[in-house]
Amino acid sequence: MQRHIINFHHPAMPRGPRLDAPDTLHHVIIRGSNRGFIFNDSDDRNAFVNRMGTLAEATKTRVYAWSLMDNHAHMLIKSGRAGLPAYMRKLLSWYAQYFNRRHKRSGHLFQNRYKSIICEEDTYFQKLVAYIHLNPFRVGLVENLNDLGVYPWTGHSVIMGKGERAWQEVDAVLECFGERVGEARKAYLRYLEDESGKGQQTELVGGGLIRSQGGWSAVKSLRKQGKKELGDERILGSTEFVKTVLDEAEEQIRLQVGDAAHIEQARKEIEKVCAEAQLSITQLRSRGRMKPLPDIRKKLAIRFVREYGLSLAETARQLGITTSAVYQILRKQSDK
Fold first, then answer.
1. Mean pLDDT of all residues in 216-220
2. Do domains 7-254 and 258-335 have the same CATH topology?
3. How far apart are CA 250 and CA 73, in angstroms?
4. What is the pLDDT of residues 14-61, one digit of tens each?
5. Which of 8, 49, 277, 314 is the most exposed place for a label (fewest CB within 10 A)?
6. Domain 258-335 - what CATH class?
7. Calpha distance 77→167 (Å, rounded)
8. What is the pTM of this model?
């Protein structure tokens, strides 16, 4: 298991931004709107699972564990080159359209956007596989672990050799429990038996300091040792892991969002240049082509990106033009 550089995604502000990069392990939780059902029958579940697998193969996304309840679903996946948001968008948008069409309904199927939690592999991989696969047993959909072994709507039956999903990363899971398949399955099943008596384990669903650290006992232990603990609702892992993820994301945050100081600097620059040219800021941002507007925008765009480090999107917002226009300005400048 390895750590990977984390990139920063902010598809919907001011909602909390996502952290992601290829080969990042995520615990994904999907919930129905207003706690409503997202699966009405086996046909719905089968459609969702088939789409999940088809997309996993197409995007090189690795699926280690999954379980479908009536009104929510869990997945433990490692994002492919296209990233987690692209995979989930294709999965959920397709399924929502399928579900609404099949059941003659309209409106949002899912509760807001899905939750994704970056997980420290070395510490939590096995725990999360067990937690996710035990969901049907935990909520009473199956009576015991024997029934869970043949229950078709989790990845557990596939790991136990009772189901077949070619796209599911069975070998990667079993390798954590033993070298030979038979021995590994027995060890995996013993581990599930041990974990089945631990209840909800709310720390495993991410969010805040206690969950980031893996539970209140871990937080108390760190405090007794006089260590400064760190938590983040998007991350499940130790203080060191949380800090590493956030530090690696910091540069991407700066490039994509632009820090407040540089944005303020850009605004003052706009005010200064407009005053010198006897123009209003509204005129500058109007996309008008009358001279000297294009030249001013060009000079400011180059300065904002190259000197202030603003993203193309933030530069476009400040100048009232499109991101594509900023890109073209920079490209033409580079060609000279």
1. 48
2. no
3. 31
4. 344 566 777 889 999 999 999 999 999 999 999 999 999 999 999 999
5. 277
6. mainly alpha
7. 12
8. 0.66
